Amino acid sequence: MKKTLAAVGAGLLALSAQSTFAQSSVTLYGLVDTSVRYLTNANSNNDSQVSMGEGVETPSRFGLKGTEDLGGGTSAVFKLENQFQLWSGKLDNSNNTLFQRNAYVGLSNNQYGTLTFGRQQTPFFDVMGNTYDPLTVGDFWQDSWIYNPVGRYLFTNSSAKYTGQFGGLQVEGMYGFGGVPGSTGQNSMYGFTASYALGPLSADVGFQQNDNAGKKFNLVNVGAVYAITPSVKVLAGWLHSQDNTGLVDGDEQQAGAPVLTHVSPNRIDDSFYVGSTWQATPVLALTLAGYYDHARNAATLDGTLGAGINYSGTLLAEYSLSKRTEVYGTVDFTRGTGAFLADYPGRNNQTGVAIGLRNIF
């Protein structure tokens, strides 16, 4: 009897000890952001347009994220993140996906890294959105068009993702399960990035491949950030994509652009970007970004395949009203030639001016 009581007591002590470190938390977070934007040559009649839409850098979103301490430096983690249109209140997608941005669960260890499962941002999107793109992968077409080839692949369903930090080296790897009977490769994806920070310099290299019904889309990225001073950074990078799916020609087009009579079975894009961010004062930040792309073997308006060049420049000023609220203004210009004429609804150049308001909670 005494042995039984002792065993029960030991079990209760073990449970009480576990409860001291098995702490959990759930956080509601998000941001709301919208802008009013003037754009030239917005349709086939070359009319100007004034509209309300997404912010220049950050679409509106809200989410829940949580963690539970399992002991030994290991935690269970999850995230559910939604994206919506602030100006209309609608979900910001065409297929009624509630948690468009992230929906995952996993385990995280202080020493060995994090492994998560579900719908997730790709490693490429993580590094470009968080560190290596001057505009954090902007929202306006004039700021984000070099990412349109990979735009449909920035998030992956049914994926397993690993993230690890080892001193100055950060690695991310992801595999997306295709789920096709009889074929492990069809509709699957895999991608990885490796970033290394040394003093004021940080550099990244990555690769991603997506399968679409047996046809491939490949992307290579190289980027770097250098902090000249704590308040001034310069950024530069290169993206190389090859598309055999025939989807990129249409993905590059703006709304209202001419209908293409054909698509390319092997489009190749080499994109370059350069930019700088400057925290001019504690409340004023300035960003300058330039993007350039050379497309080869792309669909053209005359029904053939050819080359094209597109370039754009953007100036962004952000003024903080508080730690969570800011107003901003942006001016951008973009122009295309050759195959890129198919991507404009009117003339081959556009100028945009916008003002916006963002609140983070």
Topology record:
Layout: H1 2-21, E1 24-39, E2 49-53, E3 61-71, E4 74-83, E5 102-109, E6 113-121, H2 123-132, H3 141-144, H4 148-151, E7 155-166, E8 169-176, E9 189-198, E10 201-212, E11 215-229, E12 232-243, H5 248-251, E13 267-279, E14 284-299, E15 305-320, E16 325-338, E17 349-360
Antiparallel strand pairs: 1-2, 1-3, 1-17, 3-4, 4-5, 5-6, 6-7, 7-8, 8-9, 9-10, 10-11, 11-12, 12-13, 13-14, 14-15, 15-16, 16-17
Describe this structure as you would to a colleague.
Residues 12-338 form the Porin domain. It is a multi-pass membrane protein. Residues 1-22 form the signal peptide. It holds the Pfam family Porin_4. It is a single chain. This protein is mostly beta strands and 361 residues long. It has a single domain (26-360), classed as Porin, CATH 2.40.160. Helices cover 12% and strands 55% of the residues. Strands 1-3-4-5-6-7-8-9-10-11-12-13-14-15-16-17 form a 16-stranded antiparallel beta barrel. β9 (189-198) and β10 (201-212) form a beta hairpin. The termini are far apart.
Our measurement of the CA-to-CA distance between the termini, rounded to an integer number of angstroms, reads 57 Å
Detail the poorly predicted runs.
Answer: 1-21
At CATH level 3, the topology is: Porin
Q: In one word, what is the shape?
A: globular
Helix/strand order, N-terminal first? HEEEEEEHHHEEEEEEHEEEEE
Number of helices: 5
Share of helix, binned: 10-25%
Mean pLDDT: 94
Structural class: mainly beta
User: What kind of sheet is the major sheet?
Assistant: 16 strands, antiparallel, barrel
